[in-house]
What does this fold into?
Amino acid sequence: MTAELVRGQNHPLPETRLEIRVSVGKPIVAGITLSDDEGKVRGTDWVAHPGSPTLPGLEVPRQAAADHRLAVDLGAVPQAVQRVNVLLALPVGVGGPVSFGSLAAPFVAVTALDGSEVASYTITDLDAESAVVALELYRRQDAWKVRAVGQGYAGGLAAMLTDQGLVRAHELAGTINEAVAQGLARSVAVPPPRPSDEARVRATGRTAPGPGAPGPDGAVTPDPTPPTRRPGDAGAAADGPVNYTHPSRQTGAPPPPSPAAAPAEPGKAAQPVAGDATGWSMEERLYNQVWGMFEDLARTTAAYRSAVDFAESRMDQELDKVLSDPRSRIGDTGDAAREAARAKHGLLVDRAKAALDRDLGQLAAESEVVEPALPLAFAGWDSPVWHAYRTPMEIPMALRLGDLHLPERPDLHIPMLVRLPLERGLWIDSGRSSGTDSLADGDQLRRLAMDSAVAHAARLLAVYPAGEFTVHVIDAAGSAAGALSPLVTAGLLDEPPASGAAGVRAVLAKLTQRVDLVQMAIRAGAADALPPDLDTAEQLLIVNDFPHGFDDRAVTQLRYLADEGPAVGVHLMMVADREDATEYGPLLDPLWRALLRLTPVAGDHLADPWVGHAWTYEPPMAPSGSQVLTQVLNQVAHARRTGGR
It folds into this structure.
């Protein structure tokens, strides 16, 4: 029976191999510190955190997330350790909540390897605290117990670590916050509100779960009564069918009815329908449906991986029991026990794989219906909608920046959609990544990165009404002339690409002045006082081969544009290798964190703060030999010359 603890209460632990699960509702940091008999942390090697997630017997998540699973083997921690402290903290400097008082009460559970809860604790009465010691696992007469602590710190991680006696606590807190910020900078965009349960069930045949499970952005408040098992928990596959769908999210106002799905045959799922999600328009419905597919793929994959992990841990546990008894190590008895453990493992994995294949099949069928129905801004370059391109009359709600997929089904691609106007700049990484061909040299990667940047810029130009999007280019060394030729030839650059230090200074001065003027007009409520020659269109600055041609003043202006520009219609697209800017040291770290990192080749670098997946990103390049990009740019240029006609 689960012990529901209150602050200060303790409970014996029946096993030393445990899992600690945390659910908050917004991405937070989870870590562990080890203390001696005086309650002191002896050094940084006694702290497990996202920048250093493993210690003997311990493993914590590598990034901030709304849900966490921490692995603990108390039998493997050093003998000098008397306490294992579970820490929770809010990420710093990423625009999220600054105190736990603004969040739902964190829920923490200690579970056995089979998924059964040993003890749980809901941390209440938090206010201005930004870090908290949630639980304490401690030795008592050669046994271990768990105590509900709930000690909060308004001073954050630094204050918490200092209180635990760690020397140079502020330095380690900074290291942890930096590791978390880098992880969040690689995160996939936050999904939108989900369609209603009824609409999803009619179209996909999936059953909606109950309330309470938080999503990647924490938009759903957890149910006050914590569930005993969430979809995707270890062991769920062994107890019954797992519900893989994501909780519904409310849009705030009743949308028009969604299109009805075709009736399903008895025993079969209903056929998917494009636009089955909620929304006031077909564009909004398709946008929500795409994000629903992303969430369903994330959840079903997480459930499969969790079930496989559970099967493996259960087999290891049963094999350990066999090996611990000398009478069963050898002979027919031992062989039979080992074979039974392996057979049970195979059965659980096969059952999980069958559920995964079933759900992936449903998602693949839905993708086959949705992809051809996507509007211009959501469609890939290979879509027929581009052959009937006409300049749009209004800005779309979102833009496709590429595709996302997971290794369990590499051919199932989910469009990566981001809202417009862009809320953060883009960084096209021209350095080596996990998806880079080992034979590709630096020059080839830089060419691919610039080609990718031009494809992104072309798509932005194509989805905005004529004259409402302007592109500037800084190519200080003049090395991107070939990649830029589609934009230059079509006449879509108001000025030639800026080169040399003087060109860099001129473009940055012009754009920073625009940001200053618009900010002042907004603050003064005098938009009509802007200079008549000011270009009020959205602005995009493409910077190639950074930091070539940039002095300290230019770097400061670039950081200013990255931070302040998006709010007033000035957006940044960097094409650079971060290693090339190492001479600036940590000065440019805020710049890189402010940008969404994309790669010119497939790479599994986009982190998912909801379930912890590393999604593989595919850049949106035109098919080889296709002239679609050139044709679209020529039509955009013609529309600009003729006033949109």
Remarks:
- The chain has twelve helices and 21 strands.
